[in-house]
Amino acid sequence: MKGKEKGREKSRAQLDREQVLDTAARLVKRHGPRALTMRALAAELGTAVTSIYWHVGNRESLLDALVERTLADLGEIRATGRAPAQRVASVARALRHQLLDHPHLVAMVHERGLTERMFLPAQRALVHEVHEAGLRGARAAEAVRAVQVHVVGHVLVERYRERAPEQHPGEDELWTAQAAEQDGALARALAGPVDAEALFTTSVKALVAGLLGPAP
User: Fold this and answer.
1) Which pTM value belongs to this model?
2) CA distance 142 to 125
3) What is the rounded CA–CA span in Å between residue 147 and residue 137?
4) What's the farthest any 2 CA atoms get from each other in the chain?
5) Helix (H, G, I), strand (E, B) or coil at 1
6) Could you report the per-residue pLDDT of 156-172, keeping only the tens digit for each?
7) Cβ(88)–Cβ(130) below 8 Å
8) 3-state DSSP call for residue 133?
């Protein structure tokens, strides 16, 4: 009996809380939140389930800790560029990459009702930049929300396209037949693959230029 107790203590001593959270985050990233069970996590770590409970508590406590760490890791977003439009667009790009790089963890944050808190660092960065561009009040708020919605919408469309079944006919088939008509270059471009990064850059630049331009 004493030998078993010593073995348990040894397992606990070999682990630490950060190691448990690192492994849990990798499991979520690979397979999604539903795959994160205490048994699966213990198997991944090569330890007993009781050792997991010792370091992070039950599964709900583990999920809470993962969410808090995700929010901390997303952290502050810093604008880059000299002109106001460049800096606002850089915040939009940074937010897009955060959402794309952590899909399962972001979903977990959303499921626990912390989405608005997750977006707060990006909103603060956008508020600062639109203020620097001279916008105030309702117009500044509208600009911040418009950029945020644009980013989220673009990310959702990207994920939909990734998960959608193969299309028959696809864009290449639909537009190849039109290539000899009035705008062959357009048809050929639409028949080709979508460059999501370039498309986002083009669309966010146009949006920001309109938002920061003269009031209608």
Assistant:
1) 0.79
2) 14
3) 16
4) 85
5) coil
6) 999 888 888 888 777 77
7) yes
8) coil
Angle between helices 59-74 and 17-31 (to 10 degrees): 80
Q: For 61, phi and psi rounded to 5 degrees?
A: -65, -40
Please identify which residue in the block is written with the tokens 């205490």. Answer: 38
Q: Dump pLDDT digits (tens) for 113-165.
A: 888 989 999 999 999 999 999 999 999 999 999 999 999 999 999 988 888 88
Nearest to residue 25, comparing CAs of 133, 122, 103, 138?
A: 103
State both tokens at 175: 């537009």
Nearest to 159 by CA among 100, 89, 79: 100
Domains (range + CATH), the chain: 2-66 (1.10.10.60), 75-212 (1.10.357.10)
DSSP 167: P
Among 62-71, 101-110, 176-185, 203-212, which stretch is predicted with the lowest mean pLDDT? 176-185
Q: Which of 206, 83, 76 is nearest to 133 (CA)?
A: 83
- Whole-angstrom Cα distance, residue 170 to residue 204? 26
Distance, in Å, from the CA atom of 206 to the CA atom of 189, rounded to the nearest integer, reads 20
Q: What percent of the residues of the chain are helix, what percent strand, and what percent coil, each to the nearest 5? A: 75, 0, 25
Task: Please answer whether residues 27 and 40 qualify as being in contact, where contact means their C-beta atoms are separated by less than 8 angstroms.
Answer: yes
pLDDT attached to residue 16 = 86
For residue 171, what is the DSSP state? H
Model confidence at 104, in pLDDT bands (50, 70, 90)?
confident
SS3 state of residue 140: helix
